[in-house]
């Protein structure tokens, strides 16, 4: 059995950042990176652009193999985990091999969640989480486009999150008639506030997309080369292409009996340590608290995955510069049909008290929309459509709990320059 000082299971953003942090403090420890994919690691965020053809699949790798070689890392592909023996520090792979570890990082990410819809397993449907998924969806979209050239190619998208909305736009551009079905009351729930979501939805409707919010799919059934989607109101939609974009679930199937605690994800402390000795976890596979301490688990986003990976790697290597992970703050950037929407942080609760303040510029019918949410004079969230600001700087203002004070009006009027001025004073 092979033995390594460090084993990193997963090679996306969290795993790669952890690897970088380990090597920064421990130049000599042996490291294995185990990637379940057969291709070089890619970011899930780029996959919609592979579907659209904007990004070539051979130019999207997060790291080339030469980078792993330069880090003196044993990088292995098609190395999926099957079981974890934390008592003896062993990881069993799907091919039966075992690898011993001194310290282990679980960064296995998430897999598409499939809703319990009658008949779904009997029809051809697509998901979008891996490069293979993206290539299959791209080919299917091209098929629908060829149908659209003769008649009216139809596509149904179940879920109006970022994946579903990106895919819907690509399908529209390919010439398909698209229906989006979302069980919650707005598109992009959890990403944007209601007003921003309504503006985004209006753009999609103007492009001919049928958007059905607050609706559920009861059943799908095969119809020739496509399927029929039966809605909760009794009506149906026919489609040659069906995309299920109903969210994700953490990839934890290999952890049964391991002693690693799992709730809605792997439970970790502020240093990304699990309940099992010498085992850490980071990225979409974990359950972490919100930065705001409101009991809401943080969603899986790229900046958080990087921060969690860095924290885990520094902790594993014993880096004295280690600081606790502060909790998740959402950050989303979304381009659609030539428009841009941004959101950072949280919205005000329905029962917000006098310590909360909400400032809005624009809205329905306006050229641009911006919303600031503050509590006790500190930024809690910012949402905008077609307004220019740097989401990374807003993220820092929230994390640092910067007192906005009398600069609220300036931030509302010109968020880009006002936020930069605030941060420049902190960085000096």
Question: What's a concise summary of this model?
Answer:
The chain is an alpha/beta fold and 428 residues long. Helices cover 27% and strands 28% of the residues.
CATH superfamily of the largest domain: FAD/NAD(P)-binding domain
Could you tell me the strand content as a percent range?
Answer: 25-35%
Give the overall silhouette: globular
Record field, number of beta strands: 23
Largest sheet: 7 strands, mixed
Low-confidence stretches: none
Query: Which topology of the largest domain does CATH recognise?
Result: FAD/NAD(P)-binding domain
Question: End-to-end span in angstroms?
Answer: 52 Å
CATH architecture of the largest domain: 3-Layer(bba) Sandwich
Count of individual domains: 3
Q: Could you tell me the radius of gyration in angstroms? A: 23 Å
Considering DSSP H and I runs of 4 or more, what fraction of the residues is helical?
Answer: 25-40%
User: In terms of structural class, how would the helical and strand content be classed?
Assistant: alpha/beta
Number of contiguous helices: 10
